[in-house]
Design goal:
3-stranded antiparallel beta sheet, 5-stranded mixed beta sheet, 267 residues, 5 helices
């Protein structure tokens, strides 16, 4: 009998150890990072301008007056007293990129900016406005992309719409902003739905356990990305067990109440 009991104990210990190893393999990120090359990830990431993006564009020149026609400034604002007054310096209206990828820029007209990086857009505008300036003018163009958003849902601690204000955010940073994955989230099968410049949507599956994700074009999020973390088998089973347990306790409680009532009646 003692030998049989000892066998049961050893079997239980081995089961726990094997489960722990399996859990580690499912939970840890970038498990193979020491055995792969990250050379493909070399280079600084630059976000590309997409339709519906909002751009703040500032033009400066050595003669401030020469730059005025190229800045889409708010000339008047309504103050708290209800009076109209001139706005302060730096109050610029954003440019909305239309569905065809164009903005209407003062003086020079429509410019196609879709697919350009911030630096490429600055160079384009600089080239377009130079013919309108004196040869001695040295224009400086600054383009800022207004914050875009990505949505994170599923088995994360705080599902939310995450604002991206720095024009660059990795998928891990987006997940961290949503509280990171719960222990029940599938780390090897994260769904990413991305919309391209034409409006077509693409779905890809990402494995956070694999360090090759760093080399992937999906490592950095883009405008309007949707990230969904699926629940693992344990979460699904717990959900089923939770519902079954609730029903079982309810049925048991009713039976006990009925039995108590019968005992009271026939006592």
């Amino acid at each position: 009998m003692k030998k049989l009991l000892l066998c049961y104990v050893l079997a239980a210990v081995l089961t726990v150890m094997m489960t722990g190893c399996k859990s580690y393999k499912q939970v840890a990120y970038f498990q193979n990072i020491d055995s792969i090359s990250l050379a493909a990830s070399k280079g600084l990431y630059d976000a590309k301008i997409m339709p519906k993006d909002e751009l703040t564009i500032t033009v400066s020149t050595t003669d401030p007056k020469a730059a005025v026609p190229f800045n889409l400034a708010v000339s008047q604002v309504l103050n708290p007293n209800g009076n109209i007054s001139s706005s302060g310096a730096g109050s610029l209206l954003p440019y909305l990129v239309d569905n065809d990828g164009y903005i209407d820029f003062p003086v020079v007209g429509r410019l196609h900016v879709q697919g350009l990086t911030k630096g490429q857009c600055e160079d384009l505008i600089k080239a377009k406005i130079r013919p309108y300036l004196a040869a001695s003018e040295n224009p400086v163009v600054t383009v800022r992309m207004s914050s875009f958003r990505v949505t994170v849902q599923g088995e994360v601690k705080a599902p939310k719409v995450v604002p991206v204000s720095q024009e660059k955010m990795s998928i891990l940073e987006a997940l961290t902003a949503a509280g990171d994955l719960t222990i029940y989230g599938k780390r090897d099968n994260v769904l990413l739905i991305r919309e391209d410049a034409s409006g077509e949507k693409h779905a890809v599956r990402l494995n956070l356990n694999d360090a090759n994700l760093i080399n992937s074009p999906y490592y950095y999020v883009q405008q309007n990305d949707y990230i969904y973390v699926e629940p693992n088998a344990t979460a699904s089973k717990n959900s089923e067990i939770g519902q079954s347990t609730t029903l079982w306790f309810s049925a048991t409680s009713i039976l006990i109440s009925v039995a108590s009532l019968l005992v009271t009646i026939f006592r």
